[in-house]
Design goal:
Number of helices: 8
Shape: globular
Number of domains: 1
Radius of gyration: 18 Å
Order of helices and strands: HHHHHHHH
Structural class: mainly alpha
Largest sheet: none
Oligomer: single chain
Number of strands: 0
Distance between the termini: 34 Å
Strand content: under 5%
């Protein structure tokens, strides 16, 4: 596909963008901005985005993304509760921090587990019900999103690495499915994720780190 053909597909896709998709995209952008500044409204605004995208993903045979957005919905409620919890001294019990080596291993295992399951499920669906499914790409976007949302609820800096991976995978995935505006949305989220990563790294470094027996892995941006 040449540049002109891609441009034509972009123009046609934008013409076909529905009001629901516009609402989902703008609420998603707002929720990521709220996440970057650690604002609790990230969750109720994010719920608007995820519920709409459950419907959009089902229509587009993006069953992995459907599962992701259902998972987002559940985890948004969980994260909303977790972010508001305080101890006896009225301090939040969850704060932005880096992962240690053990937690990194847990994240990689979590990612691998969901990638394998989603890949095989989508491969079956592709043969039987959804010939337009793209199992390997959808499974990767879904598994990284599962991991990112899990870590976001726990306020781990590394959640942004997984969001970056999700966004990179989702840009072409939604474009080839005809959801051009959503593809642009993920491009915007990709840019915002880099700013979110830098901000959360700054906030994590400002907090006194509680030392434990596991060495921490701190990845630095340029």
């Amino acid at each position: 596909m040449n540049v002109y053909a891609i441009w034509q597909q972009f123009i046609e896709g934008m013409r076909q963008t529905t009001l629901l998709e516009y609402i989902a995209v703008f609420s998603g952008i707002v929720s990521v901005w709220l996440q970057r500044i650690e604002n609790i409204w990230v969750f109720p605004i994010g719920l608007i985005n995820t519920i709409i995208y459950i419907w959009i993903s089902i229509k587009g045979n993006l069953f992995g993304e459907t599962s992701v957005n259902f998972y987002y919905t559940v985890m948004s409620i969980y994260g909303w509760i977790l972010w508001t919890k305080k101890d006896a001294q009225q301090h939040h019990i969850v704060n932005i921090e880096f992962s240690n080596a053990k937690q990194w291993m847990q994240q990689l295992l979590f990612l691998a587990f969901f990638y394998v399951i989603i890949f095989f499920v989508l491969t079956y669906l592709k043969r039987s019900f959804a010939p337009n499914a793209i199992p390997w790409a959808d499974a990767f976007a879904s598994a990284t999103a599962y991991t990112g949302m899990w870590l976001m609820a726990k306020k781990k800096v590394e959640s942004w690495y997984w969001w970056i991976a999700t966004n990179i995978a989702s840009i072409p995935l939604y474009f080839v499915k005809g959801y051009v505006f959503t593809s642009v949305y993920y491009l915007i989220l990709l840019i915002m994720a880099f700013f979110g990563l830098v901000e959360w790294m700054r906030r994590a470094r400002k907090r006194p780190q509680i030392m434990d027996d596991s060495p921490r892995i701190v990845m630095h941006t340029q």
